[in-house]
């Protein structure tokens, strides 16, 4: 059979299936079954308590993968056979028969649109319906949302730091395994990167793929004599001509401009550049730091780029992978400008300068203060491993059962769950969003132009009236009656949504240093409901 084109994004998550969970979900399922609670009507909220990276915002991602899980959720015969092996022999046979019949047909799944900026405490996902299934989804949903949202947020922060400069994800070699690598490419693209070096991610998700070459390519040549192919088609003449000669001529001409002596310029490096230019005359990008950027890499690059110019091609630029990136980018830009003027090659002053090597958000912010001339960054380790904070702490908590609210108490006020089936509204001012408001689902929604009381969930005296210019309901129904019931956006649409969603958040909330917290409030009704339930459930101690 001929090679079938794969659908764009179904390759990654074959491993996402009901057994990709914690054992305790299965043992609870059995105990629910024994206690005849499986069909109770449960409501679970998925939310986080603290924004990552010392920031004050998070970008929600992973929704499409959650819906794929819900769509495919079925225990297979081999799953059941495995569970029979590992669970105690006391487990009744009928339970396994029951597990086989489970589907997500009796589940409703609400979520915030993928790519929306979100904040602590608001439900990003609300799962309701058959208790046993809603419970069984916990770990897998958390797994699908936590890294995706963390990665998207990380990428969005790099994008905010880098402004309009190009950003490429180069992290596959450092990622947390193959799935971590693919997810990093996908979610960094959604979060604001322009492309990835990861070829499989390009194929699966239709993300632009980009790349230069490694030091190994440069060090694989020792001298010009090693070049097997020395000719290139001259675009101006239409004939194949010796390409090495004009390049060597150019290098001699440039010697005085660069203030170097010929013997210190590396010939192996020049040979590598020439051969790469012959292979990719329209896409010549050179890694210039293998030996010495100032005394070898730049002059060799410029000689080859000018040779290409003579032959009717335009070089793309250079990559700097060590040293002081700001300083070296200025040195490179100065030479490019000088050559542009001296030899009347206007595009030379605009050649791309890419920087890589252990770059993180702080490096970019620091470079912003240094008057650098970098056009694009290649970023790996810090981006894909989210080195600054390696996990987002989303949790999945039961908030209602059979119409009765449930609360999880904690000594730490911030960890007390907000009970009941809730809706979330984002209230907008004229330019930015003002506050997110949680309400009981049976309350009528806030109305634009009308005064709405917003209360801090735990501090009684902290309240404010808000007159929103616009009200957005954040939770949308995505799954009911066994099918997806809302349109899923493309990756490009989600990427654009991240950008637009971030624009509606005030700059002081997004800044890197000491950002202002965004306000998340509860309605008056929910405030009293929460605090009554808290009092009802908190034991009164006795001092002795
Ligand atoms: N102008 C700059 N401002 C702030 N940070 C920079 C600047 N230039 C480079 N950096 C960062 O400083 C670090 C330099 O790291 P390191 O000393 O390991 O590299 P190097 O010595 O340049 O490279 P190598 O050891 O590969 O030759 C990198 O994380 C890099 O991103
Ligand atoms: O630094 P990162 O943000 O992870 O970006 C990717 C790095 O990966 C490549 O080389 P590698 O680090 O494998 O080797 P090198 O540093 O010795 O060039 C590339 O040259 C970058 O330096
Ligand atoms: O294409 C590149 O330059 C690249 C790709 C991966 C890692 N480092 C660099
Ligand atoms: Mg490195």
Automatic annotation (TrEMBL):
Keyword 4Fe-4S set for record: no
CDD domains linked to this entry: NAPRTase_A (cd01570)
Broad enzyme group: ligase
Domain Nicotinate phosphoribosyltransferase N-terminal per the UniProt entry, residue ranges: 19-146
Ranges of residues in domain Nicotinate phosphoribosyltransferase C-terminal: 421-528
Required cofactor names: Mg(2+); Mn(2+)
Name assigned to this protein: Nicotinate phosphoribosyltransferase
Presence of the UniProt keyword ATP-binding in the record: no
One of the Pfam families matching this protein, by short name: NAPRTase_N
